[in-house]
Design a protein that fits this description.
By secondary structure, the protein is an alpha/beta fold. It contains ten helices and 15 strands. The chain binds NADP nicotinamide-adenine-dinucleotide phosphate.
């Protein structure tokens, strides 16, 4: 029996991992959350929390999904972002080393500058915003820690996540997005789009290309990769613009496409964004035999989950 500790268990990716790991034979999944609501309390800014959870649980593997993921917030709250996104993983890695545990660190496509796209693991990172810088710092800390590690870079993760409050949307009657321990609903790109458009508001879409990653598929990929080590791009296999992705969401969830407008620039956002942070995922396929769902496959799964929740 392998014991897997999942940080950020109430977040979008963490909640999918918890659900799937709990159903998998030979795995015992223990989740942690920032406040202790819905899991053991492990605030990544608290060395005490990290070391006491690590020594009491004594995991074989830690999957660190916890992170400050709001890119614009990170730009304006740098000390907090660095503490959670870089210092926390460094301490977790040191604790893993002491226990002989392996660390799976979830990184991001935002470590790249976005000038070229279709980045491979051999390409040099060059983050254009503070969030990306903190995530890259975490990668370096994990690599240098001396513990066994797997670093995974997904991109624009979407899915339903945990059960949040009911949306006020007239057409969507299911919980949308994840709810933070503070009770604040945190939408992801797809749930934000569905909520915005179905409540009659216009959605302005960033001019950006990337590799959308369905959270359920990423969770499945991570659980398959538990025994692997190294650095891998684990994301959806398609390079697509956010605008085209939005149109596919509109098709699947029957949204008014007239309310979806491409923005000519991204200057309405606080932090800079990489223009094309799409990822080449062929190494994960070649080495690990892992290929995540395409946009259409991922949205189909999301629609299926939505229809099941409505019943
Ligand atoms: N979302 C994306 O598009 C995307 C793209 C590429 C990579 N990633 C990476 O993928 C991972 C998972 O992302 P996600 O979409 O699942 O994010 P998410 O839904 O925002 O979940 C992140 C979790 O981290 C927790 N957290 C925040 N501050 C914490 C702290 N101080 N101590 C402990 N936990 C804390 C949050 O808890 P609270 O709710 O209580 O604050 C939340 O449950 C992250 O590492 C992220 O950087 C995400």
């Amino acid at each position: 029996m392998k014991r897997v500790l999942v940080t950020g268990a109430g977040g979008l990716l963490g909640s999918y991992i918890m659900r799937q790991a709990s159903a998998q034979k030979g795995l015992e999944a223990v989740g942690t959350t920032r406040t202790g609501q819905g899991g053991l309390k492990m605030d990544l800014t608290s060395n005490g929390d990290i070391s006491s959870v690590m020594s009491s649980v004594s995991p074989d593997i830690v999957i660190n999904t916890a992170s400050l993921t709001n890119v614009d917030y990170c730009e304006g709250h740098r000390r907090e972002a660095l503490a959670i996104n870089a210092e926390g993983p460094r301490i977790i890695a040191d604790e893993c080393k002491k226990l002989g545990a392996k660390l799976i660190q979830i990184s991001t496509d935002y470590v790249f500058d976005g000038k070229r796209g279709m980045y491979t693991e051999a390409d040099s990172p060059g983050p254009v915003n503070y969030y990306g810088k903190t995530k890259l710092e975490a990668e370096k800390a994990v690599e240098q820690s001396g513990t066994g590690y797997l670093i995974v870079r997904p991109a624009i993760i979407y899915g339903w996540g945990t059960t949040g409050p009911l949306t006020t949307s007239p057409t969507i009657t299911s919980p949308v997005g994840t709810t933070s321990a503070a009770g604040v609903r945190r939408p992801n790109y797809v749930t934000w789009l569905i909520e915005t458009v179905s409540s009659g508001q216009k959605a302005r879409i960033f001019d950006q290309y990337n590799s959308p990653t369905f959270a359920g598929s990423l969770a499945e990929g991570l659980l398959k990769a538990l025994g692997s080590e190294g650095l891998y791009h684990l994301a959806g296999p398609e390079r697509i613009s956010r605008y085209d992705f939005a149109l596919r969401v509109a098709d699947k969830f029957n949204l008014a496409k007239g309310l979806i407008a491409p923005a000519r620039d991204n200057t309405f956002a606080k932090a800079a964004r990489p223009h094309d942070s799409s990822l080449d995922v062929s190494k994960a396929w070649k080495d690990l035999g892992i290929r995540l769902l395409t946009v259409d496959e991922g949205l189909k799964m999301m629609k299926k989950e939505f229809d099941e929740r409505k019943k």
